[in-house]
Structure formats: structure tokens, C-alpha cells
Amino acid sequence: MANVNLELEPTLWDTGDFMEIKDLIVDDRQRGIFRVHRSSMTSMDLFQQERELIFNRCWIYLGHDSEVENPGDYRRRTIAGRPLFFARGKDGQVRVFLNTCPHRGALICRRDEGNAEVLQCFYHAWSFNTDGELIGVPGEEAYGPYFDRSELSLKEPPRVENYRGFIFVSFNPHVEDLVTYLADARDYLDLIVDQSEQGMRVVAGSNKYNMKANWKLLVENSLDGYHLVPTHQTYLDYITSLGTGDNAQPAGNAAPYRHADRGAADRIRPPMANRVPGAARALGNGHCVIESAARHGRPIAHWHPLFGEDAREPIARVRQRLVEKYGEERAYRMANTSRNLIIYPNLVINDIMAITIRYFEPLAPDNMEVTAWHLVPREESDAMLATRLDSFLTFLGPGGFATPDDVEALESCQIGFRATETEWSDISRGMLRPAQTVDELQMRGFWRQWHANMQGLSKTNVQDGPVAEAGIAVASGTDD
Amino acid sequence: MTAANKPTLREMVEDFLFREAELLDDWRLDDWVSLFTEDGRYVVPTTDLPDGDPTRDLVFIDDDITRLRARAVRLNSRHAHREYPWSRTRRFISNVRVEETGEGELSVTSNVLVYRFRNGEGAPYVGSIHYILRRRAGSDDGGDLRIAYRRAVLDQEALSWHGAVSIIF
Ligand code: FES
Ligand SMILES: [Fe+2]
Q1: Ligand 1 test: best mutation among A100, A101, A107, A152, most atoms within 8 Å of CB?
Q2: How far apart are CA A150 and CA A128, in angstroms?
Q3: Superfamily assignment of A181-454 in CATH?
Q4: Residue B161 domain-assigned?
Q5: Residue A230 φ then ψ, to 5°
Q6: Residue ranges per domain, chain A?
Q7: Which residue pairs from A86-91 have beta carbons closer than 8 angstroms and sit at least 24 positions apart in sequence?
Q8: What is the CATH number of the domain that holds B73?
Q9: Residue A405 and residue B82: Cβ atoms within 8 Å?
């Protein structure tokens, strides 16, 4: 460097060192401080590593077996970036296929759903049965003697398993079996499936919407009791105006719903802030849950004025059946508690005013496609189904009174992340106390698993509390 | 009024729809809700099931008059965060088709394009709206029309641009 003219020589900006993955999370259990570096939600490099280290290694939700009720029924999905479809064969088995022609690549399944005995590729007309076998090749005599149809079946993902109707796939041939992977989240799936005598089914029609936000923000938001009162005040006020719980007024007698007029002084009205705090739990392998006594109706067995008088009787009967079958304690959990569950990494099952399945497919560090379905018991009467559907709509979905505000919140955070000088998000809430639903233990449970996976580890043993504990339910609630 | 000046049924209905669009673009939601009959209904099916039946299938919106009023209250408050501050919208209504279905009811279908701008982004909602409009008995002018049913069907495959149906579509 001695001989160069320093005035003309361009010098490299000192950009500092790139953040190492191990430093992306601050987890100080002595002081109760938990921070996440925001580059984990903005960096393309980390996004690609997530693909490899999380989405190519974990079990990922695909769909529900009730979505392909009859032989020949198929559904198309994009899962962990791959085009897939699943179909029920003549033998009643559901099979999952990579949606690409073994010939030269075209999509085999080009509709979102349908029924077919034979799936024919439109490009050169190879055809396959619903078992995935290649059954027709136009002009097959042109191929040599080693051309073997049996090597050219539709390919299946390395692992496919079904837990009580929930179908998962994994692109990792060495992944542990699904039940082991689900860990203590399994019991929470049972709490839902056991509500029905004849099994659950997914209702026709799905909510498909994008959020221009990092997918992990939706994990946090789906299990965030802290935001409920401030973000969803309009919903809570509306529900309050109808009355809450079993002693509430029938809808007709309720005080009319009013809200602070635009321009009027901002009123902070936390109508339910003092309700049961509930509990937050890390369930192992990154799965987490919050649960609390239902503050709203639950169509399964907890009446609310929104449901109308006619629903009182049938709801009471269902509750009675659950008590007889499972005992009062478990029936209480099924009927009277609400639960928001994350099955790591990208499936949320909410058992709240309705049961929703929410899958989110990351598209970019700042974009995801969300699909939400509604899960209902098969045996319910038309009237109860209508009640259930109605219960879903007030709060949930892109046209509901709450979900649009969650979309706004997440996109707002993502835009905020552009101010990169504010490097960290704080997720410390409740770290030094038995965690409630308004705390953030469940998010820390998710983030710790994410952090372990991103460092190439399959799991973490770290839990809240000053000393690492091997047990899973270190946080205890007060209401169940 | 001479026969030549008397507006046709379609013109009358168009005037009504144009007025409705103006109320919505001006965010005069209370006035908009007052266009509905007491048994009125506002339905938006999901993008993957445009024929969805709210009693059987999942839809985006299925409001009776109570929830519709609550929707207006919510959007008028400063706590509907997706619409606070309000987005700017501009509606274009066209291809209006009207059919008299007897008993003072009209079955009306229109094409609709609603541009929505907010937070540095703009994109359209595209679709069609089916109405059942009711006339007061014996009346023959559009001022007496009320909305008994309004079903707004989106043509988009998903809510990829807007993330929600946060306005009245
Ligand atoms: S790509 Fe499918 S038949 Fe050629
Ligand atoms: Fe929310």
C-alpha cells in the first residue's frame, strides 16, 4: 500500500463482522432477558439456511385426510417450496406425490382439487394411476430395452405419516417418527380429535392470504396472549356488548355495541384484562401452547349468546357426553379451555371460538402465504355447523374482526425492521415467573428450537428458568 | 315527466349502485348500512369456493344486520388497525344486469373493480356483486330501493395483495 495514491484508491468500508448464528439470540436465564436479532427475520441468507436446516429436516404439515374423502380425490399443495399433491387410491390409502412428471418435469396435477382415476401429464401424455404408477407412455416402442416404467413412478416424499387424520411429510429420510417428533403436542391434538365421536373433517372453503412479513412473526402472533386486548379491542368490545359466558344476556337484550368514535379521545378499555391468566407451555421440539379458560363461546360445549338460544340444549348434551366418556377434568379441558398450539415449525392449530388449522409457507424473508381451514366434528347437526361457521367468522379470517389487524401488526413489524440500527426484538416477558398466556415463554420455546436447528442441532433442552431443566412443562398455569 | 325522460329500470338501479359506491369511497359507513333491510345480509365467499354457502362452507364474511352494524362501528373507530388511517379506495361499477323477480324484488349483478391504496401500496379487488334489492310496494323510483342481500365474489385466486378484506368489498 505504500506506493499508492491514497486519495484515488477506493478503500473497503468497514462493515464489521457478519453476525454468527450462535449470536442471533440472547438467552440470559439468570437475568430474565431474551432477545432475538432482527436479521433472523430479514436476511435472505438466513432464509435459505432455514430451508435447508428446518424445512428440509422437520416434519411439515401437508393436509387432512378428510380433504380427500373418496377414492380418486386429490388436492394440490405447495409445501416447503415443493409442488406436491395427495390423493386417495382405489385401496383407500392416501398417498403423497411430488407434483412433477418423471419424464421432463411438467406438473401432473394442475388443479387445486379434483377427482381422477388416471392422471395424465399434458405435455407428452404420460399417464399415472392414483398409486403413482406409470401406466401409459405414448410411442413406448421408441425406448430401449432398459427403459423401465417401474423406475418412473411418481416420486413420493421420503417420509409421510398420518397422526389421527393430520398428514405430515418430511424430506428428511432420517427424521424420527412423527409421534416422537410431536412430543407433548400429541396430547393437544388428541384433545381436539377426541371431541368428536365420528372424527373431524375440514369444511369446504379455505382462507388464503399473504402477509408481507417473516413467517416467524406469525408463529409469535399465533401464540400471543399479550396482544389480544390492545390489538383486538374492537372484537372484545363487540363480544362484551353481546355478553360473555353462560350468564350472558341473549343477543337481543344486550347493550348495543359502541366504540370510541374516530377522532374522539383514545380510550383504553381492557374489558377482560383481569380474566384468568392461563398457562403457556413449551411441549418439546419447538412445539408450544397457550391455554386458558375460554372467554368466548366454544361450539364444542361452552354456550355463548352469539350461538343463539337454540344451541343451548345440544351444546349441553355434547358436554355431558364428554364428561361421561373422559371424566370431568378432561372434559373441562376440551370444552371450557381454549388453546393455541404451534406444531413446529409452521403449523398452528387454534382451538378457540372455532377450530382452525393454519399453515404458512414462507416465500421470502418478508412474505408468506397463509392458508387456514376450519375443522369440525363430522356428526354435528346442520344447525350446529352453521353456528360453528358463524362463530369462526366474527373473529377469524381475512374478513373477520381480528385477523386483518394481525396482518397489519405483522407487516408493520416487518417494515419497522428496515430501521436496522434497532437490532433486537425483546421476548423476555414472564421469563422469571410461572408463565401465563400473556407471557412469551411459548415464543422462547419456538425460538430456542429454531436457534438449535439453525446451528445444525436437532433439538434444545433449554427451558425458562435459571437452570436448564430436562422436563418439558416447567411453566405451570393456574386454571387447569 | 315524459316517457322519453323517464329513467329505465337499469338506469335507476345504476344510480343506486353509484350512490352506494360513493358512500363507501367516502367512508360514510353508517349511511351505507342504512341501505340494508333489517333482514339484510352481506356475504363474501372465499377465493377458492366462489359458490360457497355460509351455512355449510367457510366464507370470508357472512354478516346479518347486527354484525354489519358492528362492522361499521369497528371501521369507524380508530382501532380497526388495518384501516386506521383509512385506505383510499375508488370503485368502478359496470356491466349492470337487472332482472325483476316479482314481489317488488330485483336481482342485480354488477362487475366491480375497487382500487385500494394505503401505506405505499396499491392494488385492486376485482369481482362481481350480486344483489337482491327490494322496492317499497307501488314505488317506481330508485330512492326506495333497499339491499336485502349483497354477495360480493372475488376473482382473485387468493388475497395475495391485500392480505385481508379489510374494506367493504
Ligand atoms: S413432461 Fe410429462 S410427459 Fe413429458
Ligand atoms: Fe391477533
Answers
A1: A101
A2: 11
A3: Naphthalene 1,2-dioxygenase Alpha Subunit; Chain A, domain 1 (3.90.380.10)
A4: no
A5: -65, -45
A6: 60-170, 181-454
A7: A86/A62, A86/A167, A87/A116, A87/A119, A87/A130, A88/A130, A89/A129, A89/A130, A89/A131, A90/A130, A90/A131, A91/A131
A8: 3.10.450.50
A9: yes
The residues, any chain, with a CB within 8 Å of residue A164's CB and separated by 6 or more, are A189, A190, A193
Tell me, what's the pLDDT at A440? 95
CA A306 – CA A51 distance, rounded (Å): 43
Residues A407 and A221: their CA atoms lie apart, in Å, by 10
Give the rounded distance of the alpha carbon of A15 from its chain centre. 37
Question: What is the Cα–Cα distance from B67 to B40, expressed in whole angstroms?
Answer: 11
Asked if the Cβ–Cβ distance from B164 to A261 is below 8 Å, we say no
Residue A113: how many other CB atoms lie within 10 Å: 14
Question: Among all residues of chain B, which has the CA nearest to that of A354?
Answer: B58
Query: Is residue B127, in this structure, part of any structural domain at all?
Result: yes
Number of H helices, E strands in chain B: 3, 6
Which DSSP symbol is given to A18? P
Residue nearest to atom 1 of ligand 1 (CA): A104
Please tell me the CATH code under which domain A60-170 is placed. Answer: 2.102.10.10
Q: Bigger pLDDT: A12 or A203?
A: A203
Interface check B138 vs A, CB under 8 A: no
Q: Among A232, A255, A233, which residue's Cα sits nearest to residue A242?
A: A255
Whole-prediction pTM value? Answer: 0.90
Distance A231 CA to ligand 2 centre (A): 7
Give me the domain span that covers residue B47: 9-154
Hey, what's the cell of A468? 436448564
Ligand 1 nearest-atom number relative to CA A121: 2
Count how many residues are written for chain B: 169
A218 CA to centre of ligand 2 in angstroms: 9
How many domains does chain B contain in total? 1
- Among the partner-chain residues A260, A385, A409, the one whose CB lies closest to the CB of B77 is A260
Tracing cell 413446529 back to the chain, one arrives at A344
Q: Residue A73 forms beta bridges with which residues? A: A115
Q: Identify the burial level of A394 via C-beta atoms within 10 angstroms of its C-beta, where 0-12 means exposed, 13-18 middle and 19 or more buried.
A: buried
pLDDT for position A2: 52
Pocket test for ligand 1, best of A97, A98, A104, A147 (most atoms within 8 A of CB): A104
Residue carrying C-alpha cell 382501532: B79
State the best of A269, A385, A389 to mutate against chain B, taking most chain B CBs within 10 Å: A389
Residue B164 falls within a domain, yes or no? Answer: no
ipTM: 0.94
Question: Distance (Å, rounded) from C-alpha B127 to C-alpha B110?
Answer: 9
Tens digits of residue pLDDT in B69-103: 999 999 999 999 999 999 999 999 999 999 999 88
